Amino acid sequence: MFDNKEQSRTSIAELGEFGLIEYLTKNIKIHHKSTVKGVGDDCAVLENSDHQTLVTTDLLVEGVHFDMSYMPLKHLGYKAVMVNLSDVYAMNGMAKQITVSIAVSNRFPLEALEELYAGIHLACDTYQVDLIGGDTTSSTKGLLISITAVGEAKAEDIVYRSGAKPNDLLVVTGDLGAAYLGLQVLEREKQVFQVNPNSQPDLENYTYLVERQLKPEARKDIIKLFKDLEVKPTAMIDISDGLSSEILHICKQSKTGCNLYEDKIPLDQQVISTCEEFNLNSTTIALSGGEEYELLFTIAQEDYPKIKGNPNFTVIGHITEENEGKNLITRANQKIELTAQGWNALNKG
Amino acid sequence: MFDNKEQSRTSIAELGEFGLIEYLTKNIKIHHKSTVKGVGDDCAVLENSDHQTLVTTDLLVEGVHFDMSYMPLKHLGYKAVMVNLSDVYAMNGMAKQITVSIAVSNRFPLEALEELYAGIHLACDTYQVDLIGGDTTSSTKGLLISITAVGEAKAEDIVYRSGAKPNDLLVVTGDLGAAYLGLQVLEREKQVFQVNPNSQPDLENYTYLVERQLKPEARKDIIKLFKDLEVKPTAMIDISDGLSSEILHICKQSKTGCNLYEDKIPLDQQVISTCEEFNLNSTTIALSGGEEYELLFTIAQEDYPKIKGNPNFTVIGHITEENEGKNLITRANQKIELTAQGWNALNKG
Lengths: 349, 349
Hints:
The structure is a homodimer.
Chain A (H helix, E strand, L loop, with lengths): L11 H14 L9 E3 L6 E4 L4 E10 L11 H17 L4 E11 L5 H18 L2 E9 L4 E11 L15 E5 L4 H18 L11 H8 L5 H10 L5 E4 L4 H12 L1 E6 L7 H10 L3 H7 L6 E5 L4 H4 L5 E9 L4 E4 L5 E3 L7 H4 L1
Parallel strand pairs in A: 4-5, 9-12
Antiparallel strand pairs in A: 1-2, 2-3, 3-6, 4-6, 7-10, 7-11, 8-10, 9-11, 12-13
Helix pairs in contact in A: 2-3, 4-5
């Protein structure tokens, strides 16, 4: 019990988040036939007789994932639910239930928790999800939210990360980079406010960016649209850590390469103008900015007519054989290796 | 965003854990027929065609729920799983899967996390549970573990807290008070060690108590035994917050009273001798000591012959009409009101 505490030390930061997860999960044994899929995708999949159950979980930590000086608690509650529902939609399933656990220091008044739960309830009502349980405890410091979402889908409808095939099209919903830029705008306003507490934030030119950061929406609508269009993606993932990081996940698990075309990446006009103002490269922001909760998916070429011209979708590249590598084709028609520089919570801690 | 932050303030500690949970969950709306039971029992219950799914979640926070100076990480991992499995068994279900999320500061070396996961894997192997997902992130301070367990049971087998009826017998598994006393012994050794780091802890007389604190076992065996004995409890709960607190939960949700007999409460000999040594009242310890993970349940009188003489079970009282109150009948045959003084994480923060 009071053993020698000297141990060899390996830094967690060294491994990175994905390295750590891989390391910690490599020895997992599966005991039940009903565990169709455990660790390694957006959701776990459990077998039932008429459908499969999807389970996913996320942890949000104050000072790591959110800053309460510009994140209103109601928005935080809403966003915490979105993060989880997005993982269920990324399996082509429908989220049905969530559990919410919070650890909170006694410095929080009850009214603050009410605000937080108001956001959680709003998300549940809007997305038709049932809050079915949780745990509430004190923390020694700050606020922490742990949410688990349970969803369902027919076995034949579930889309894994591993199903992409060479020649499939790489498609993204919505536009990219806005949530990350929204965070930059809010950080700048916070600094201005700290210097001059009487300053009034002027966010008029950044409304879309700020909304994407503070009130992201999970793409339940896209899952319905897939059904209407009779499209089933071959692989899918939600964009929480940045486009490049997510593309690499699909390629790795599908054992493929890819060509991503820089000039195809969808950007909102506010993203372009704000990148100019902040002197940032908009492609870098779109590739690496996280917290988008858009869906990235691949479809067979023959399904292209079904999505062609639909404003929800942008074809940004295609899947190749694994030995062709993972490439970004620049506007200057140069082929460069796609690397993950995604938003990495572990490096921020 | 930078609004007036002045708000009315109500202290969370004032409400207590259960008051807070009740407060935060009172407006929950249920959208799906498949949500058979949401917040308010050990587990949520979800409808499937051939069985029902059980979901439960718990959050363990360093400095609130555990002290790493005497809780080896492997034991902590094992215990964190037990806490959740115990909730599934308390519904008369079988735990099948868990998700594990951890927030950890960078001061932890990888080897420490390996130890933690070694305990989690051991628990999964021993209890035949699949680890199916989770989230790993950094914390600004300390270690936090959030586990969600998923289980299943046939609809007709599930036991809620609300099914107790007047004249039912009140039964407990195992014996009580040991886990709490184990904590007291470890706290004392920690203080001795802080004064004299060369001291060697002498735990010989407290082995059972320390084991109950550091390596509790969830009572999966009892669920199997119920099947063998063809007993279905009318109500059931696991003892995580102390016997009196759990009895009051059953009475409240079943709308009944109860008589609990002090002289029937099962105590191990080490509990009795250590209470004498620490000058503690063993009944108080048994009523209020938490973290037991024994099962408290009620059965119809006619089922008594099925459990009679079984060393796993002790009949400690019976259920009465609600207007008869919740009573402790002392050894001196006095009737006093049973009050909850359970282990309350929120008051410890």
